[in-house]
Design a protein that fits this description.
The complex is a heterodimer of chains A (154) and B (164).
Chain A lengths: L1 H18 L10 E3 L4 E5 H5 L7 E10 L5 E10 L5 E6 L2 H8 L6 E6 L5 E7 L31
Chain B lengths: L1 H45 L4 H7 L6 H30 L11 H17 L4 H11 L4 H16 L8
Helix pairs in contact in B: 1-2, 2-3, 4-6
The chains are: A alpha+beta (154), B mainly alpha (164).
Chain lengths: 154, 164
């Protein structure tokens, strides 16, 4: 009899956790060298079971030595099949796109035959967020400000 | 009674000291103001400001005429701003044109050799990569793109085990 209660408790806990988890859409990194396209989300790449998957973009700003500063950006990705690509860009619009990225993004990019990035996209959606972030859902459905104890850590 | 007289003398002495100090500070402020106005007058001469202001700046008594002169100078300075901004913008825009960071073919060839050295070694440590990037930044935009392309292609081909 006790076992039933324990199992029921586990079930309830699991359902409760699932109910507030929200929609998730892990997007493993995929590098398509034929069509020159790569995409994937950073969280799925970071917590993938393999040790090769990665995706991300960055910017370098460097003094040109004569009073100016040049910028170039790059995006890189490696999928689970170890297909890897890095593209670079000096295009102001694409550099702006990289600057506007945020944590936990879905990233998609393309490149040309010179390995220059031709398209960079970011998507910041709830379903790309990692587990472990504090929820703002209150367990007791109250509206007091003391929500530290009410946060769910799923 | 003696105590009160004593206190009164002390108080009067302190008030006198404070008065002297105020006069000293006032004199300092005047000196600073005169110096500033001299500098302003010199600047206004450079900017072809009205001669009236240059004269009034030395006067020391700052009446309505002086304020008008200052306003006139400020108007002229502000009117000159768009020209300066335009010049600055032009200089900035030139950063990425072939004319700005003039680099000879020898320097470009040197960077190409650096990339080939990376390939020969099979990689580059972070310091070497940063050093190369600093050199690449001195190239005109088109040349920069060529070297970056060569570098990126070598990285993608697995010839250089490094990252940006």
């Amino acid at each position: 009899m006790k076992l039933k209660y324990v199992l029921a408790g586990f079930g309830a806990a699991l359902l409760s956790s699932t109910a507030i988890a929200g929609f998730v859409q892990p997007f493993p990194v995929d590098v398509d060298l034929v069509n020159r396209a790569a995409n994937g989300d950073t969280v799925t790449a970071r917590y993938s079971k393999n040790k090769v998957e990665l995706i991300g973009c960055g910017i370098r700003k460097i003094s040109d030595g004569v009073g100016g500063v040049i910028s170039f950006g790059f995006c890189q990705a490696t999928d689970s099949d170890e297909e890897a690509i890095t593209c670079f860009t000096q295009d102001a619009g694409l550099l702006d796109a990289i600057s506007s990225s945020s944590d936990f993004s879905f990233i998609t990019f393309n490149w040309d035959e010179a390995d220059q990035c031709t398209r960079i996209g970011f998507s910041n959606q709830s379903f790309y967020l990692p587990k472990g972030l504090k929820s703002n859902v209150k367990k007791n459905n109250d509206n007091d400000d003391d929500d530290d104890d009410d946060d769910d850590d799923d | 009674m003696r105590i009160l007289i004593g206190l009164s003398i002390i108080q009067t002495s302190l008030l006198g000291l404070i008065g002297l100090r105020v006069l000293a500070v006032d004199a300092t402020v005047d000196t600073v103001a005169d110096t500033s106005l001299d500098v302003l007058a010199a600047t206004s001469r450079t900017a072809k400001a009205p001669a009236a202001y240059a004269q009034s700046a030395r006067v020391g008594a700052y009446g309505a005429a002086d304020i008008d002169a200052i306003r006139q100078v400020m108007r002229e300075e502000l009117a000159a701003l768009p020209t300066i901004t335009h010049t600055e913008q032009a200089r900035h825009d030139n950063t990425d044109t072939p004319a700005a960071p003039v680099v000879d073919a020898q320097f470009t060839a040197e960077l190409q050799r650096d990339v080939e050295r990376f390939i020969a070694r099979g990689g580059a440590d972070d310091a070497a990569m940063a050093d190369l990037q600093i050199k690449i930044a001195r190239l005109p935009k088109e040349e920069r793109a060529k070297i970056l392309s060569r570098l990126t292609k070598a990285m993608n081909a697995g010839e250089i085990d490094s990252t940006f």
